[in-house]
């Protein structure tokens, strides 16, 4: 396969469904890691009253001000983007160097590799094996960083698709061991169970080469609007921002982000319900005799022999899961829990093909 081929993702593919003669409204999407109880009501209100005529605020000032207060950092450390995906490519373009090494802690999100290769970097993977619970030997990882000396390290923590993570202290050690930049993707941080106040312990990390990515897409269910942000040293954030087109974050995304971030009730109310739905779905899959792996996040991996075949068969029964072959895990599918009645439909469909 061409190393510059587009990255495989979950979610419904309209072209695929049209080719199969399947109506999108007849399919439940278990392949996207989103909060099934969102978006917050305030988001709908904000969008209903939005005037689309003016250009958006090119600096995203109001949303960035709230984010800076939430993370306890300076305003010029926060750069908003059209989803974290845009920021991944901006980082690779701004900080990557042709011929330099990008180290990816795998299996993980495919856009890190794609962005690095577009920046003409050499990509090296360190993989956490399923046999060890998809966990890294932390000391060996630090030694690998010292040996490889990458320009960029891509770390998804907590990780997609495995749900595993690294302690904040180890993330700090990795940054200290790295001569280049450590990009810690925290898109799924807020999804973890029993977070006390939602604050990230990495907010207290002062490493100047640490870049953190966050997303409102997952926990607030704003995938269609695209809003992400990074936190970095002011000079690093400013440099990355020079590569960003003007008006990258549209007015609807900014209005929705502002409404979501000022809603103090939504996440405490919905995340326990999401985890309860996840627990019930794990139990239902176990009753079918399936092996389920779940770590720090509500989505799970299910070992099923041939992930592509299982995905296709479930799709024809009205449920779509994420085939994990693109992660290097062809025997697995990833399943994101949805509302209880939808999860019951998945269990019923899976029972037909076991």
TrEMBL record:
Domain spans labelled Aminotransferase class I/classII large: 26-348
A Pfam family that the UniProt record links to this protein: Aminotran_1_2
A GO term, aspect molecular function: transaminase activity
Keywords, comma-separated and alphabetical: Aminotransferase, Pyridoxal phosphate, Transferase
InterPro entries (UniProt xref): Aminotransferase_I/II_large (IPR004839), PyrdxlP-dep_Trfase (IPR015424), PyrdxlP-dep_Trfase_major (IPR015421), PyrdxlP-dep_Trfase_small (IPR015422)
Cofactor(s) this protein cannot do without: pyridoxal 5'-phosphate
Protein name as it appears in the record: Aminotransferase class I and II
Native source organism of the sequence: Roseiflexus castenholzii (strain DSM 13941 / HLO8)
Top-level taxonomy: Bacteria, Bacillati, Chloroflexota, Chloroflexia, Chloroflexales
